[in-house]
Amino acid sequence: MRRLKFTALLPVLWVLFSLSTANAEAINITAIKMAHDIDGKYLPVNITKSFPSGTAKVFCWFSWKSAKANSQVTVRWRYLTEDIPILSYNFSIPRKQGSGGVALSMPEGKTLPAGSYLVELFLADKKISSLQFAVLEKTS
Description:
The protein has 140 residues and is of the alpha+beta class. It has one domain: Immunoglobulin-like (Sandwich), CATH 2.60.40.
């Protein structure tokens, strides 16, 4: 009887594991770029990996396919120069494929410190993409 219960439980566990794994792989990031802005058509404006001193806002643009509509993605911003987590927040992917972006913005009157940064995208705690960028030192 005990062997029968265990044998019956294995297919249930396999299905649950398959569902959680399928959800974690439900999006394919096809491109990722840093930019100064994102336009009305959700395309990057002034693509770069190096932002000038005095930059207060940066955008991470990405395109995707094979997503489940309304998938929750987490973005994590990190200041690599001093190994400091800056910000983490969730957003929804609205459709199966498309493009869009997320932003890191300083409060009014403040700018991003010079140094190296990292932006990472996660789906169900699985990293699906990341990109490093920099804010340059002020030149005299």
